[in-house]
Amino acid sequence: MSGAASPSVFLLMVTGQIESAEFPEFDELYCKYCFVYGLDWAPTTGLEEGISQITSKNRGAQQDLVWNFPIDITFKSTNPHGWPQIVVSVYGPDLFGNDVVRGYGAVHVPFTPGRHRRTLPMFVPESTSKLQKFTSWFMGRRPEFTDPKVVAQGEGREVTRVRSQGSVTISFNVVTKDMKKLGYDTSPSDVQNPSGTSLP
After folding, report:
1. How confident is the model at residue 11 (pLDDT cuts 50, 70, 90)?
2. Which of 48, 74, 97, 152 is deepest in the core (most CB within 10 A)?
3. What is the Cα–Cα distance from 124 to 69, expressed in whole angstroms?
4. For residue 35, is pLDDT > 60?
5. pLDDT digit string (tens) for 130-146?
């Protein structure tokens, strides 16, 4: 009996970068990222989390904060449930020089192979009363999540009061391997499937 055994897992390879951010009110910011994924998923190579350098706005007309911070990770899984998400947290100094959170955001790694850009709307948790707002400002302790991964989960999020603030742009290069052999079609819905982005 010849022939290779059919694969029992597929691979998802993700490279790219957290390119830039737009926070009109803030400067001198850095970001952290981490991946959140389901129980059937396991990272095989690369980094699950990272922290960038601090960046400042350039003084020209373009007021973006540019990081170009690389991401590079490969996952293996037996099914697509729990497809990985990247969670980004942005931090910077307040008036007193304390590092405070300036925004959280999350997005799924794109499902289709190829190059993708995503802009994440960012938000921050809000104090629920004026007294809490004043106290947190005065003490230099802003509301923040103890674990940023909650941003990628639905449970309990509906009771959290948040305020939108800024955005972050991420570029992804996605490659999959053996998904078709396991019966999953990840080709783009239109006919133009970019060549060379999906391994056999």
Report:
1. very high
2. 152
3. 22
4. yes
5. 655 555 555 555 556 66
Which tens digit of pLDDT belongs to each residue from 57-80? 877 666 789 999 999 999 999 999
Q: Give the C-alpha distances (Å, rounded to integers) separating 84 from 48, 114, 131, 180.
A: 11, 16, 38, 19
Task: Output the DSSP codes for 92-153.
Answer: EE-TTS-EEEEEEEEEEPPSSSEEEEEEEEEEEE--SSHHHHHHHHHHT-----SSGGGGG-
pTM above 0.90, yes or no: no
Q: Which of 76, 68, 90 is nearest to 23 (CA)?
A: 90
Question: CA 65, CA 111: separation in Å to the nearest integer?
Answer: 27
With beta carbons less than 8 A apart as the criterion, state whether 53 and 67 touch. Answer: yes
- Residue pair 142/101 in contact (Cβ under 8 Å)? The answer is yes
